[in-house]
Amino acid sequence: MAKHKHDHSHDHNHQHVKADFDIKVDIEDISSVKKRLTITVPKETVKSGIDSAYRNLKATASLAGFRKGAVPRGVLQAKFGESVEADVSGRLVEQSYTEA
Predict the structure, then answer these.
(1) 18 to each of 22, 24, 26, 69, 91, how far by Cα in Å?
(2) pLDDT tens-digit profile of 2-46?
(3) Among candidates 37, 39, 38, 41, which has minimal Cα distance to 21?
(4) Residue 34, pLDDT score
(5) Among 11, 15, 53, 96, which lies 20 to 30 A Cα-Cα from 80?
């Protein structure tokens, strides 16, 4: 592991992990039993995940006034936006945590 100094008051070891899906995981040794993970996800990866989630949702969503598979993305975003973003974020974090 490489040794780094940062703006905060203690020295610690870091390990950089590059996942297959362009997520960077920085593992910081706080103590012998405590670690801090910093996960950096490129916006293209997040956008791709969100686009994929909306495509899947569009194919299965049934909303009054729209045929199945024909709900506009804007309507899906208004109704399910927070949930979709939380789901995508959770999956990306879970994938990166598994890699770490």
Answers:
(1) 7, 5, 9, 36, 16
(2) 444 444 444 444 433 344 457 788 889 999 999 998 888 889 989
(3) 41
(4) 94
(5) 96
Q: What is the pLDDT of residue 92?
A: 86
Helix 43-60 and helix 73-99, axial crossing angle in degrees, nearest 10: 130
Helices (H), the chain: 43-60, 73-99
* Dihedral (CA of 50, 54, 57, 59) sign: negative
| Mean pLDDT value of segment 61-82 | 93
The Cα 58–Cα 40 span in angstroms is: 28
Q: How far apart, in whole angstroms, are the C-alpha atoms of residue 44 and residue 59?
A: 23
* Of 29, 28, 25, 43, nearest in space to 98 by CA: 25
Q: Which domains does the chain have, with CATH numbers?
A: 2-99 (3.30.70.1050)
pLDDT for residue 4: 43
- The values of phi and psi at residue 64, to 5°, are -55, 135
